[in-house]
Structures are given as structure tokens and as C-alpha cells.
Amino acid sequence: DQQVKQNSPSLSVQEGRISILNCDYTNSMFDYFLWYKKYPAEGPTFLISISSIKDKNEDGRFTVFLNKSAKHLSLHIVPSQPGDSAVYFCAASGGNNNDMRFGAGTRLTVKP
Amino acid sequence: KAGVTQTPRYLIKTRGQQVTLSCSPISGHRSVSWYQQTPGQGLQFLFEYFSETQRNKGNFPGRFSGRQFSNSRSEMNVSTLELGDSALYLCASSLPAGLYGYTFGSGTRLTVV
């Protein structure tokens, strides 16, 4: 059951521009949302998170926005850098489960 | 502090065999979760253990099983391997899930031939 969906398998942006990665979820019981970044041959690393009581969380170049009514969240990276090129996973947890559910990932390529 | 350690890093097995993968969590983390990553499918949740008890299980057949020991180390076992089991298997440890997120190991790349 795909409770967390990332509908764009890939995204390509120019260095210095904004990258916007999107994620949708279906389970209204989720109350924590996270983004992970993954390089080849490594495990995913935690990037940024947001609680359902907030609609925005910012950490340096990374900002996550949450729209609960639309069950949608997005990750903005400004400005994008070539080192940001990786696969980004959206994840959600909460409700009756203690586990975390992940989307299929979006491969971001930032071109110099 | 040491991160999450998964062994082995790479494994090649034949169809029908069984395999055991190991995960040592970060010291103090009592929750261990397992995920399967395949191209286009993202991270599929296998199961989560806390204090030696399986708390949650994903939609995988019974050939996939796991356990957790008193020191929080965890193993997962796949019996009667199929070609479709070829994937990167990731282990993650955490304090309770939530804003703290998970810390992942580097994974075990399993290839079934």
C-alpha cells in the first residue's frame, strides 16, 4: 500500500536555481514527515522534518512545507548546488504505527 | 559514536537458498527497522522491532522474517530465495520514530542468481 507517493522519479535543475520536490500521502493519521537524501552505495541520511502542527520548517538552504488539507508536502532547496544531486525520499510516520513509510524517491540532478 | 552497521555489504546467493543479514544499531537505540530498496519502488517497509518484539510488519511474504536480540542487534532471514528478492536491504535504528528520524546503515546488496 503506497501511503506515501512521490510521483516524479526525476528532476533536473540548474545550479543556483530552486529545486522543488513533491510528496503526497494518503494516511491522515501521519503526524511526522521527513525527507531523506541518498547517495549511491550509502544508506539514506536524514535531512529535515516537520511535525503536523506546523506548515513550514527551514534549515539553511532546505525548507519543507506541509499542506495538511491537501495531504501534500514539498522540499525546497535554494540555491541548488551540484552536491545536492542525489535521490530524495519523503517519509511519514505516526498514527497507529511506529514505523516509517517511504515514497519511491525522486532523483535530483543539479547541473553546473 | 558508531553508526548502524550492516553485514555483509554484498551477498550473492542462488535461487532456493536462504540468507541471513545482520544489523547492529546505534548504541542506545532500541528500535530497528528493515527496508527493501528496489529501483522504482523506493524503500519498502519489511518490519520493525523494539525490545526483541516485532511491532510492525509490512506486506511481504512469510519467507521474510526477522528477530531482535537483547542487545538490540537484529537479523533478517529470507528463505527460499527468488530472483525478485535481489535488492538493497537497509536497516535503520532509532529512538521512537518521529521528528528524530532514523539512522540507516549502508545496506546489504543481495543478488539472487
Task: Give a quick set of tags describing it.
heterodimer, A: 112 residues, mainly beta, six-stranded mixed beta sheet, five-stranded antiparallel beta sheet, 0% helix, 58% strand, globular, B: 113 residues, seven-stranded mixed beta sheet, four-stranded antiparallel beta sheet
Question: Can I get a quick summary?
Answer:
The complex is a heterodimer of chains A (112) and B (113). With 112 residues, chain A is mainly β.
Radius of gyration of chain B: 13 Å
Helix content of chain A: under 10%
Number of helices of chain A: 0
Largest sheet properties of chain A: 6 strands, mixed
Share of residues in strands of chain A: over 45%
Number of helices of chain B: 0
Largest sheet of chain B: 7 strands, mixed
Mean pLDDT of chain B: 91
Number of strands of chain B: 11
For the record, give the distance between the C-alpha atoms at the N and C termini of chain B, rounded to a whole number: 37 Å
Give, in order, the helices and strands of chain A.
EEEEEEEEEEE
Class by alpha and beta content of chain A:
mainly beta
Shape of chain A: globular
Briefly note the structural class of the backbone of chain B. mainly beta
Q: Uncertain segments of chain B of ≥5 residues (pLDDT<50)?
A: none
Distance between the termini of chain A: 38 Å
Mean model confidence by pLDDT of chain A: 92
Largest interface, C-beta closer than 8 angstroms, per-chain residues: A-B, 27 and 29 residues
Radius of gyration of chain A: 13 Å
